[in-house]
């Protein structure tokens, strides 16, 4: 819902923030197409009608609704997007700007992997502990981890088997806790990594940014966009 941004961007969901004339999800869709991906699913909830207008002008974009977005976690949305998936997928968060290199690294890497960067200093980071090149744990509190390997970017590649394992972890969580407020990364992905290796691909100099609040938005406009605006050919 982007509550921390609603004082400056009150009329749209975060993924439809425009930076120099292009929305965040529009840019992701463009880069995915340039990387050869033709089927794009966006899970919508808050202000879903805004995404419906966006999708009407985009080719190959399919919408899945999570009408319970206000009372569920991000894994509930991802589970909806993965329903019926029979092939590997890339999972991208909607509120990030990143180099095209991020997609290249994942698409040429292991079947199940998540992308890490060096420290960005952006605030609200999710830190990852992956001492042997595979995901062990992650947390927003660095002190909770045995060590820091990198910063979670919000782009992950899942094999067909990993998709099924994520959804199974979610089903077990809801049965155990009686609610669906499970995070897809610190919850389901870490849970799956305990049983199936999830490669942690570190790109120390990756330029990227997440937009959760006005300070992060200013950083992306000022520091990130000028460095990533020219997409490199895949």
Folded structure, characterized:
This protein has a single domain, classed as Spore Coat Polysaccharide Biosynthesis Protein SpsA, Chain A (Alpha-Beta Complex). It has helices at residues 24-34, 48-56, 74-82, 101-107, 160-177, 184-193, 214-228; strands at 18-19, 22-23, 40-44, 61-65, 89-92, 96-98, 113-117, 127-129, 137-139, 150-158, 199-203, 208-210. By secondary structure, it is an alpha+beta fold. Helix 3 packs across helix 5 and helix 5 (160-177) crosses helix 6.
Q: Which helices and strands, and how do they pair?
A:
Blueprint: E1 18-19, E2 22-23, H1 24-34, E3 40-44, H2 48-56, E4 61-65, H3 74-82, E5 89-92, E6 96-98, H4 101-107, E7 113-117, E8 127-129, E9 137-139, E10 150-158, H5 160-177, H6 184-193, E11 199-203, E12 208-210, H7 214-228
Parallel strand pairs: 3-4, 7-11
Antiparallel strand pairs: 1-2, 5-10, 6-12, 7-10, 8-9, 8-10
Helix pairs in contact: 3-5, 3-6, 5-6
Mean pLDDT equals 94
The structural class is alpha+beta
- The helix fraction, in percent, is 25-40%
Tell me the distance between the termini: 33 Å
Indicate how many domains the architecture comprises. 1
> Uncertain segments of ≥5 residues (pLDDT<50)?
none
Please give the radius of gyration in angstroms: 17 Å
Please name the fourth-level CATH homologous superfamily: Spore Coat Polysaccharide Biosynthesis Protein SpsA, Chain A
Briefly note the CATH topology name. Answer: Spore Coat Polysaccharide Biosynthesis Protein SpsA, Chain A
**Number of helices, where a helix is a run of at least 4 consecutive DSSP H or I residues:** 7
How much of the residues is beta strand, in percent?
A: 15-25%
């Amino acid at each position: 819902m982007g509550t921390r941004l609603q004082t400056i961007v009150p009329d749209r969901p975060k993924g439809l923030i425009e930076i120099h004339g292009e929305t965040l999800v529009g840019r992701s869709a463009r880069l995915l197409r340039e990387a050869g991906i033709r089927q794009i699913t966006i899970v919508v909830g808050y202000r879903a009608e805004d995404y419906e207008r966006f999708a009407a002008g985009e080719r190959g974009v399919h919408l899945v609704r999570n009408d319970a977005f206000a009372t569920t976690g991000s894994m509930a949305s991802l589970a909806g997007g993965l329903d019926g998936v029979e092939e590997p997928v890339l999972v991208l968060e909607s509120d990030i700007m990143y180099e095209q290199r991020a997609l290249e690294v994942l698409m040429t890497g292991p079947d199940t992997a998540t992308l890490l960067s060096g420290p960005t200093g952006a605030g609200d980071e999710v830190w990852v502990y992956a001492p042997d090149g595979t995901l062990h744990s992650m947390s927003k509190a660095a002190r909770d981890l045995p060590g820091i390997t990198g910063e979670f970017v919000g782009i992950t590649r899942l094999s067909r088997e990993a998709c099924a394992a994520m959804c199974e972890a979610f089903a077990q969580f809801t049965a155990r806790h009686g609610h669906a407020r499970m995070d897809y990364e610190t919850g389901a992905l870490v849970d799956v990594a305990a049983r199936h290796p999830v490669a942690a691909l570190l790109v120390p100099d990756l330029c990227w940014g997440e937009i959760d609040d006005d300070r992060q938005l200013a950083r992306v406009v000022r520091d990130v966009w000028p460095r990533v605006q020219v997409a490199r050919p895949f």
